[in-house]
Amino acid sequence: MSRVRHSLIVALTVGFLTSFASAQQVLFSDRGESSANFTVVQDPDTTVEFNVDYAALGIPEAPRTSTLPGSAVQRGIQITANKGDDAAATATAANLILGSTPQNFAGVHTLQYDVWMNVGGSSTSTTEGFLGGVARSTSNSAIYRNFRTGRGNGAWFYATGDNGNATDDYAQLNNGARDVVFADTTNAESTAKFNNAFDNSLSGVNDDAANEWVRVRVVNNGSTASVFFDDVLFSTNAVTNTGGFAWFGYEDMFGSVADAGIYGVFDNVVVTNVPEPTALAALPVVGLLLGRRGRRGRTA
């Protein structure tokens, strides 16, 4: 291949990758230091505290903090459930919908955030969960596992921090329909997902999300939504709503009162749009062209 042709391919590649990067525009970004950018929807006996110094809680800095301009080190949102009294009687949850007035997101887009599911070493009643979703059209009540049929809306998931549920440590839902379910069992598919995504285990069958930063991504592709934990694809499911609100949250799916060492910390909440699949498909073509040039160069 001539030098001129190779230079042209390199220039085209740089231009393509530049366009690819610029196509991923930030539609929403928040560092968890203020309530100004959220609509908080809470059931009773939950707390949502912003700008929490989670270093004081013994939690390391979230891995993506440095990528958000102006983000304060080790500051985020702490959420608790069923900690306000000694006689909790029901499940409860808090949701944070993005936008002081819920912001509508249309087209192909990704919600991502970092979550730390804290479980103290001497804690009891440790099974609580984190949630998130896209394409939501309601903001009047908290969505969570126990009220999934009546309140479930959009494409969303719930997951436990310690894999403590008997049958559903993870589920993805379309509105109120729980279409994808995984439990902490020896099933090969479940084992691969939990152990590839997470690093710790609180004596369950597989690794779980407790006491580590987990990067959550919910990708709305229009007709389907996909959920990733630390870049491990957990599930893909149909989406009925074509667009709507993005949100995340925390729940206690049981009525028991856990101690103060059970809570969730959230940081680095971002929504981006993503390139169309045709743009992604062009990447291998560029690589093939450069690869062909390299092989010819070695045989010349």
UniProtKB/TrEMBL annotation:
Q: Which domain of life is it from?
A: Bacteria
Which residues are the signal sequence here? 1-23
Q: Which UniProt keywords apply?
A: Signal
Record's protein name: PEP-CTERM protein-sorting domain-containing protein
Source organism: uncultured Phycisphaerae bacterium
